[in-house]
Design brief:
15 helices, DNA-binding, alpha+beta, 13% strand, two-stranded antiparallel sheet
DNA sequence: GTCCAGGCTCTTT
DNA sequence: AAAGAGCATGGA
């Protein structure tokens, strides 16, 4: 991990807020504003040096090839925020509070399994399960501070695993969802290429063929892996936000979709992330 | 002990 | 299309 790449004068960017916003479960905090990140089959370090983001283990080539996109550095968040501001006072406060949040562009397969695990679960447990899966079925990547780290396992490894071994990773009843979805991916019964390239509605339909991927989990995957910043996951927290601060409550999917589109516009998914981060932090 | 967590599947209405 | 039961697990 000798190579390093520096992004100078970065704006609208906080490692802490990104790590704490419930979109990635493999950022390990080493110190103030310094993180070990396991992503895209690699192990890197990220820390802030003043207004510069420094990435260790990243070359200029790999930065341009994948890490710039991973951190969503091509997106103009001043423009995003301008589009979202003055729509609602609670959203304005959420944007201010989480001003350094970015939507990471993560690996599709990893997000599928990770967010299957997330269903009816809590974030510390999701992290533990993802780590256990990686340690058991992933590849050794290297050590940081004497601690070994492992890549996220491939579909083949999880498809071959037994249900009882999978459950040892703390997955609960989701073990069979993960095995079944892994088999579907391995056999191309579900088409990852299509999910990455097709429209949001077609991609969502393809995702929801998978065992364990319903409406909300599909939206998380579309937002955190596929670049669909208009995917708006509604979990228990967002239900509370919509009810309490937007006076909106409905179990009819058509009504929910219409409200979100009208209220938040084309960056609704990013708005959702500001709201999620804000409501969780003001409640704890 | 109960309640809840970035909900889903399966069944019934 | 929508509502309801059941679901593993660990922390509050």
């Amino acid at each position: 991990m000798d190579q390093e790449y520096r992004v100078k004068n970065i704006r609208n960017f906080s490692l802490y807020q990104i790590a704490d916003s419930g979109q990635s479960f493999r950022w390990i905090r080493q110190s103030e504003e310094s993180y070990t990140i396991i992503a895209l089959g690699a192990l890197i370090q990220a820390y802030m040096d003043g207004d510069d983001l420094v990435l260790k283990g990243v070359t200029q080539d790999s930065f341009e090839e994948k890490w710039a996109h991973y951190f969503d550095l091509d997106r103009d968040y001043d423009h995003v925020k301008a589009s979202l501001r003055n729509r609602d006072s609670f959203l304005d406060k959420a944007i201010e509070y989480g001003s350094g949040i970015r939507i990471l562009n993560q690996d599709l397969w990893e997000m599928m399994i990770t967010f299957i695990i997330s269903a009816n679960n809590n974030i510390p447990r999701i992290k533990n399960s993802v780590q256990a899966l990686s340690e058991t079925y992933g590849d050794y990547l290297g050590k940081v501070n004497d601690k070994p780290y492992y890549s996220f396992p491939k579909a083949e490894a999880l498809a071959k695993a037994s249900i009882t071994d999978l459950r040892k990773c703390g997955l609960g009843y989701r073990d069979r969802y993960i095995k079944r979805t892994s088999q579907m991916v391995l056999s191309n019964e579900v088409d990852l290429e299509l999910i990455m390239t097709e429209s949001i509605s077609k991609a969502k339909g393809e995702l929801m063929k998978c065992m364990g991927i319903g409406n909300k989990v599909a939206d998380c995957i579309l937002l955190f892996a596929c670049g669909h910043v208009d995917a708006f996951p509604v979990d228990t927290w967002l239900k509370k936000v919509l009810k309490t601060y937007f006076d909106f409550e409905s179990s009819k999917q058509v009504e929910v979709n219409a409200f979100i589109k009208e209220k938040f516009g084309r960056y609704s998914g990013i708005a959702q992330q500001y709201l999620f981060y804000y409501i969780r932090n003001i409640n704890n």
